[in-house]
């Protein structure tokens, strides 16, 4: 599994299933050793690790709730124990939820922000000292289109993803002297095969793509892989939108 990421060690949060699992496999195919983090999807995480190993790669599965600093510390410690350090962090853990404004409970609001925003912050804080020691690092946050285009029944998710975008920009500037890049991949709708989007959220306000399709998880993983390569060290602080022109940002 030789490739452009040989010698790199990546943590991918929320990587037991769906796009996170595809990202983990794609980084492994490029040569990185991968830590597959999961909270509940143990079966999927172990299957991903087995698939990577069968192809000649290196990976371990590590359970942990990344909204908890103690779990994050244990996750990073296991990565160091297994592979020596951490040079790539993919903050993929997220909550998929549709709720009208007045139906969002305080608990759901806090859980949404914690899973997307708090967890990313905790993981970055835990990994940056290792990256500084290496003299390089790559952080890729997985954002969301609702933060940039506006979606009904997604105000809690949009707030979390918008916060992630703001943190991306601030940390890209702060960590640039350390040769650590920080970028945000912003997918539009992804075809995960789950089919769990409520019918009410497939129409008005939930823009379809002029391409007539959703992104595949592999297309998002390919973009993450691109940002992790040595050829991309001058790209930092960027929002990379992958939405098939469902909306267009011009700045």
Structure, described:
It is a single chain. Helix content is 42%, strand content 15%. With 251 residues, the chain is an alpha/beta fold. It has a single domain, classed as NAD(P)-binding Rossmann-like Domain (Rossmann fold). A seven-stranded parallel sheet has the order 3-2-1-4-5-6-7, with helices on both faces. Helix 1 (18-29) packs parallel to helix 2, helix 1 packs across helix 7 (217-228) and helix 3 packs parallel to helix 4 (106-134). The N and C termini lie far apart (39 Å). Mean pLDDT is 93; it is low at 201-206.
Which keywords apply here?
7 strands; single chain; 251 residues; 7 helices; 7-stranded parallel β-sheet; globular; alpha/beta
Report the principal-axis shape.
Answer: globular
CATH class: Alpha Beta
Going by helix content, strand content and strand pairing, the class is alpha/beta
Helix content: 40-55%
Assigned CATH architecture = 3-Layer(aba) Sandwich
Terminal-residue CA separation: 39 Å
SS elements, strand count: 7
The structural domain count equals: 1
Strands of the widest sheet, in order across it, are 3-2-1-4-5-6-7
Briefly note the CATH topology name: Rossmann fold
The portion of residues forming beta strands comes to 5-15%
Q: Write down the secondary-structure element order.
A: EHEHEHEHEHHEHE
Unreliable sequence segments: 201-206
Q: Could you name the CATH homologous superfamily?
A: NAD(P)-binding Rossmann-like Domain
Number of helical regions: 7
Mean of residue pLDDT values: 93
Note the main sheet. 7 strands, parallel
Radius of gyration: 17 Å
């Amino acid at each position: 599994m030789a490739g452009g990421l040989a010698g790199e060690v990546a943590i991918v949060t929320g990587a037991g299933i769906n796009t996170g699992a595809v990202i983990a496999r794609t980084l492994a195919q490029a040569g990185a050793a991968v830590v597959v983090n999961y909270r509940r999807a143990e079966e999927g995480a172990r299957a991903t690790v087995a698939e990577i190993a069968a192809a000649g790669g290196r990976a371990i599965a590590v359970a942990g709730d990344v909204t908890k600093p103690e779990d994050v510390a244990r996750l990073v410690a296991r990565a160091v124990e297994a592979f020596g350090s951490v040079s790539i962090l993919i903050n993929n853990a997220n909550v998929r939820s549709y709720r009208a404004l007045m139906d969002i409970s305080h608990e759901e609001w806090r859980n949404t922000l914690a899973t997307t925003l708090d967890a990313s912050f905790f993981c970055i804080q835990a990994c940056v000292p290792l990256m500084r020691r290496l003299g390089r690092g790559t952080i890729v946050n997985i954002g969301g289109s609702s933060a940039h285009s506006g979606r009904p029944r997604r105000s809690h998710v949009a707030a979390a993803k918008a916060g992630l975008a703001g943190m991306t920009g601030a940390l890209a500037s702060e960590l640039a002297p350390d040769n650590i890049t920080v970028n945000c991949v912003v997918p539009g709708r992804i075809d995960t095969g789950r089919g769990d989007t409520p019918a009410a959220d497939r129409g008005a306000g939930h823009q379809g793509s002029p391409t007539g399709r959703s992104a595949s998880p592999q297309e998002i993983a390919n973009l993450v892989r691109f940002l992790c390569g040595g050829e991309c060290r001058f790209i930092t602080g960027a929002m990379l939108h992958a939405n098939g022109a469902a909306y267009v940002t011009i700045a």
